[in-house]
Write a structure and sequence with these properties.
Strand content: 25-35%
CATH architecture of the largest domain: 3-Layer(aba) Sandwich
Number of domains: 3
Number of helices: 10
Largest sheet: 7 strands, mixed
Helix content: 25-40%
CATH superfamily of the largest domain: Vaccinia Virus protein VP39
CATH topology of the largest domain: Rossmann fold
Number of strands: 20
Radius of gyration: 22 Å
Length: 394
């Protein structure tokens, strides 16, 4: 029997607007007893085909792969979708770029492959599956990647153990699906970075801050810079490249600060004016006594779902208030939220509240977001997750 999802009457409106998710409340019934991860056709209550996608158990019941009835999800579909994602990165000047060889090839809904992320680090592709359907499609993804890149690709690493739904019972483990990797520095705008996709956070490096790191470099000349939640020192390296007088990288992870120190030495030698400090950021900000005139706040997601939203907004308010109280007059504050549950307006209001607590005059110089290789599907505004502000604090 064909596997089908039948919508409740009138629940097709979001699909007619090409939104790529179907929520459980819109489902009337299922036919064909689909297993989680199966490709399922979606039909309206009136008996019309409307979409095809991966079925999953949870509040999001289906992630749409196509709105075309005559488009099967087969080998050709994967090759075509990855080719289109690749073509966009060619347009952006990221393919075979001599100064940047790490970028995002697939950004989920932004590339019409919901539930899938693929990052390229030199000759290694690192993929993360956020749905059972994508996890079960890994063989097709590997085949399509190898065809697309040829001998420019030496390894494909799956880092899905922490991202696939744990209730699915997949027993996912991180592993090489093809080839083997090595710790070779990658390039980003000419800067070198050691990236550990096997041990690091996300896929190994926060590629989504590439443009914003470059802006830090633009403003860093002659400044004393504090990079908090520094991870492996991405913003710090750009600040040093931009001529900062000194840079301190602060993170609670000793593993991360060690790698930040290695990255500073890799690019600027052992005499670089850089310190890697393992400390709690909130504690560290208490007593810096206006010794910095450029501070970067790039915390991990304070809210991974809407239930944590209020606590997250309070956290952003306290963090920004403390930084604005402690920054030198005339200082620049780069502040970010990567929480998808926090809207741009909510984040800006939290920062506004922090400024009011600090009692400083503050002006917005830039409003920042994710780079173009993390595209936002115009029908899926939830994909715009990274928010940032550059503030001038008198």
């Amino acid at each position: 029997m064909q596997k089908r999802l039948i919508l409740k009457r009138g629940k097709q409106e979001s699909l007619l607007r090409r939104h790529p998710w179907i929520f459980s409340g819109a489902v009337h019934h299922l036919e064909g007893n689909p297993a989680e991860g199966d490709v399922v056709d979606v039909w309206t209550a009136e008996g019309d085909f409307i979409a095809r996608g991966h079925y999953q158990i949870g509040s999001i019941t289906l992630r749409v792969l196509t709105f075309q009835a005559d488009e099967p999800i087969d080998r050709h579909w994967w090759q075509d979708r990855l080719q289109k994602a690749y073509a966009l990165r060619q347009t952006l000047g990221l393919i075979d770029n001599p100064r940047t060889n790490c970028y995002r090839l697939v950004h989920g809904e932004g590339d019409q492959m919901p539930g899938l992320v693929i990052d390229i680090y030199g000759s290694t592709a690192v993929l993360q599956c956020h749905s059972v359907g994508m996890y079960r499609s890994r063989d097709r993804i590997v085949e399509a990647l190898r065809q697309l890149y040829g001998d420019r690709l030496q390894a494909i690493y799956d880092k899905s153990s922490a991202t696939v739904p744990f209730k699915a019972g997949l027993h996912a483990r991180d592993q090489y699906l093809w080839g083997s990797g090595s710790e070779t520095p990658v390039l980003e705008n000419g800067n070198q970075f050691l990236v550990s996709w096997e041990e690091g956070q996300k896929t190994g490096f926060f590629i989504d801050q590439r443009d914003n790191r470059a802006l830090v470099g633009h403003y860093a000349q002659g400044r004393t810079v504090l990079n908090t939640f520094s991870y492996t020192g991405g913003f710090s390296i750009y600040a040093l490249q931009g001529g900062a007088r000194s840079v301190d990288s602060v993170d609670s992870s000793e593993t991360a600060t060690r790698l930040a120190a290695r990255n500073a030495t890799l690019n600027f030698g052992p005499e670089a004016p850089h310190r890697a400090i393992t400390a709690d950021v909130f504690d560290y900000l208490r007593n810096i006594d206006r010794s910095y005139d450029l501070i970067i706040l790039d915390p991990p997601a304070f809210a991974k779902h809407h239930k944590a939203l209020n606590n997250a907004l309070q956290g952003y308010k306290r963090l920004n208030a403390r930084a604005m109280q402690q920054i030198r007059p005339g200082g620049l504050l780069f502040t970010f939220s990567c929480s998808q549950a926090v809207s741009r307006e909510q984040f800006r209001m939290a920062v506004f509240s922090g400024a009011a607590i600090a009692g400083r005059n503050v002006r917005i110089l830039h409003q920042l977001t994710q780079p173009a290789d993390h595209p936002v599907n115009i029908y899926h505004p939830e994909g715009e997750y990274l928010k940032g502000l550059v503030l001038y604090v008198e």
